[in-house]
## 1
Amino acid sequence: MKMHAGTRSPHRGFTLLEVLIALAIVAMSVGALLGTVTSSASNVIYLKEKTLAEWVALNRLTEVRIDKDMPGKGARSGNAVMGGQRWEWKEEVVELPIKGLFRVEVRSHPTGELVDDSRAVDKPQAQTLSPSTSSSSATDAIAWTTSVVGVVGSARSDIRESVAAPFEGIQQPPPQNPGGNPGSTPAPPKSGAPSS
């Protein structure tokens, strides 16, 4: 069968232009998908870092609260290990206008040093004390991942033992005396007699 110049074959394929347009659409879709996945992964990393930084700061605030001694006014810094990395924290203690109350602000951020936290860590007992400076500068606040604030009071107890009785089940109240007389107790029912 001969083909004439003006007729088309019924089994025609895609033109080169159509294939190129389809490839361009697929490439843009894949690029947008990869951008979304990358953004999601970086958000997960950021949220993990933010959560760990807050835990480090809250742990330090808890250490200050349960310590026997009141915190001294001023700024202190130190480090902690959590989540396989080392974190730096800075604590600032300011006395409030109410006598005996202190405002404690703790900031933390990762140092970038990876640490094997499956083994025991030598925790330094001494903290470095630096003069108290205002922490309201925007540049200083940007360097820290998180900041937590708490209040510590000077009304503390020396009791370091449990103050609650151990739980041993529900105690039943003593039986009621129906007559109201302290010396009279009801006689037990005779066997075979109906009880009231």
Note: Residues 16-66 form the longest helix (51 residues).
## 2
Amino acid sequence: MKRYIKAAIKNISEEEEDFRWDLAADPTTDSRILAQLATDEDWTVRANVARHPNTDVATLQKLAEEHFAPVLVAVSENPNTPTSILMRLADYDIYKAAKNSIEHPNATPELLDKIADSDSYATRAEVADSPMASVKTLDKLSHDEFSSVRVRVAHNKNTAADTLAGMVTDRNIDVLYQVARNPNISVEALNAMQAYVDTMRSVSDREFVQRTIDQELAERGVK
């Protein structure tokens, strides 16, 4: 077996591109062969190596230093990619890699906090929607300029009562609805939201939010 692997490694660069691609995708390919294929000139071969379950951490680390998005995304798809490499991928600020990292089995609240600093509102929204997002991260995102991020913060069951209290005067009606429906919001914060609702110019918005507040208070037995 060892002689076969050595022979394969010796001759692999001379093989046709299709063969190298298939070898990198074969679930039985040895990690030593994958390490060599990780330097292939064809990025699709390297991407196959990046997502391969037999690829070792050292090879994944090298691939994570590559400044080519499809390969970096493939690294984020590998279930064996450690948190340290996912942290490195966050530096590239690639939406698909970030989304994979957020959902990765090795994701941590610290990783999500780093990803939350992304320049992409879509990436920040993915963090705000995650059940792994920490109280600190959600509080940071509660001030986001994009309402689509704030809506997800307001909906997240990890969002703290203090953060929700700071969102009761949000200018977006969808945010206010989610804030009012979050089980962590206090009665005091709901009353503060009610006072804010009274200042709204739009009658339909005012009535919509008011109904939501009344419903939430009724469910808590507050008159």
Note: Residues 140-223 form one domain.
